[in-house]
C-alpha cells in the first residue's frame, strides 16, 4: 500500500468504483485528526506504519459497504462528537436545523422529550447549547423503541455529563407530559427503498428510517396521542420528508385544529420541519 497520504487516496479511488470520494476523504481525514483544509494541504504526508495499518482496515470496510461513521464509531452533530454504532441512525445535518429551531423557544424549567432519540444527539446538542445560553433547569427525557438505541444514547449523555430520564416507548404511549417534544421520526416511504443509498439500507436501522407505505405512520399516531402528553401551551418540533408537507398540513388541520402550525424549509430550500404550539 502507498506510504504517502495522497498516494493512498489515489490508490483507494482507483480500487473501488462503489465508494464515494467524499467518504474516503472523510475517514482518512478523521483518523489523522485533520480538518478538511488541513487534509488537502497534507497530501505529501508520509504515513507511519500504524497509520498505514489503520487506513488499510478502514478502506477495506468502506469497500465492503460500511458507512464511514460506523467505521469511525462516531459522527459530528452541531459540533458535538456523538458515538454511533449499528442500530442507531447516523445524525443528519437537517436535524441540526431542527435543534436550532427548538433552541429559539427553549425556556428555563422546560420539560423536554427527545422522542425516538436514537444516538441521543438531539438531547446532547440541546443540553449543551442551553448551558452555553445559560438556560437553566431544563429537564430532559429520552425515549426510543429499542434497548440498543437507548444504551448508545445513555453512553453519549454520560460522556457529556447530561442527566436525563430514559424511557422505552412506542411513540408517546406510557410517557408523561412535557413542554416540548422534539423528534426526527421514521418518515421514508417504503417505495423509496429502490432509490436510496446502498450504505444507508445496508447499515442503518430500518425502524428508524421507514414510516410505512406513505411514510406517515408515525405522524398519524403522534397526532392522536400528543394532547395527552403536552402541558398547556406545549410545543412540538418534528422533521419530515421534503415531499410530505401537503399531506402533513392536511393531517394537522384535521387532527390538531387547536394547534398553531408552522412549517420551515431546510438550508437547501426544501420543506423539512414543522412546529406545533397548542393553543389551550
TrEMBL record:
Q: Which residues form the Methyltransferase small domain?
A: 105-195
**According to its UniProt record, which reaction does this protein catalyse?**
L-glutaminyl-[peptide chain release factor] + S-adenosyl-L-methionine = N(5)-methyl-L-glutaminyl-[peptide chain release factor] + S-adenosyl-L-homocysteine + H(+)
NCBIfam families in the record: hemK_fam (TIGR00536), RF_mod_PrmC (TIGR03534)
Annotated EC: 2.1.1.297
Q: Name one GO biological process term.
A: methylation
> What Pfam family is a match, any one?
MTS
Q: Where is the Release factor glutamine methyltransferase N-terminal domain?
A: 18-73
MF terms per GO, please? nucleic acid binding; oxidoreductase activity; peptide chain release factor N(5)-glutamine methyltransferase activity
Can you tell which superkingdom this protein's organism belongs to? Bacteria
What is this protein identified as?
peptide chain release factor N(5)-glutamine methyltransferase
The species is Lactobacillus gigeriorum DSM 23908 = CRBIP 24.85
Amino acid at each position: 500500500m502507498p506510504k504517502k497520504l495522497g498516494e493512498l487516496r489515489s490508490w483507494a479511488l482507483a480500487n473501488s468504483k462503489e465508494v464515494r470520494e467524499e467518504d474516503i476523504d472523510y475517514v482518512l481525514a478523521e483518523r489523522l485528526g485533520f480538518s478538511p483544509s488541513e487534509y488537502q494541504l497534507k497530501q505529501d504526508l508520509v504515513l507511519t506504519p500504524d497509520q498505514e495499518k489503520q487506513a488499510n482496515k478502514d478502506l477495506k470496510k468502506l469497500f465492503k459497504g460500511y458507512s464511514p461513521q460506523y467505521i469511525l464509531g462516531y459522527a459530528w452533530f452541531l459540533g458535538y462528537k456523538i458515538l454511533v454504532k449499528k442500530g442507531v441512525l447516523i445524525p443528519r445535518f437537517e436535524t441540526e436545523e431542527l435543534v436550532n429551531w427548538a433552541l429559539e423557544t427553549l425556556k428555563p424549567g422546560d420539560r423536554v422529550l427527545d422522542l425516538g432519540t436514537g444516538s441521543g444527539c438531539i438531547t446532547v446538542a440541546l443540553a449543551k447549547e442551553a448551558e452555553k445560553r445559560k438556560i437553566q433547569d431544563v429537564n430532559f427525557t429520552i425515549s426510543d423503541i429499542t434497548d440498543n438505541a437507548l444504551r448508545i444514547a445513555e453512553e453519549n449523555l454520560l460522556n457529556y455529563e447530561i442527566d436525563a430520564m430514559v424511557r422505552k416507548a412506542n411513540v408517546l404511549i406510557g410517557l408523561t407530559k412535557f413542554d416540548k417534544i422534539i423528534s426526527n421520526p421514521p418518515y421514508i416511504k417504503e417505495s423509496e427503498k429502490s432509490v436510496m443509498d446502498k450504505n444507508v439500507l445496508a447499515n442503518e436501522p430500518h425502524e428508524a428510517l421507514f414510516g410505512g407505505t406513505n411514510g406517515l405512520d408515525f405522524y398519524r399516531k403522534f397526532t392522536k396521542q400528543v394532547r395527552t402528553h403536552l402541558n398547556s401551551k406545549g410545543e412540538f418540533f418534528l422533521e419530515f420528508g421534503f415531499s410530505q408537507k401537503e399531506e402533513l398540513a392536511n393531517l394537522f388541520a384535521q387532527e390538531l385544529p387547536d394547534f398553531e402550525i408552522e412549517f420551515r424549509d431546510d438550508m437547501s430550500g426544501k420543506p423539512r420541519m414543522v412546529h406545533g404550539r397548542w393553543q389551550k
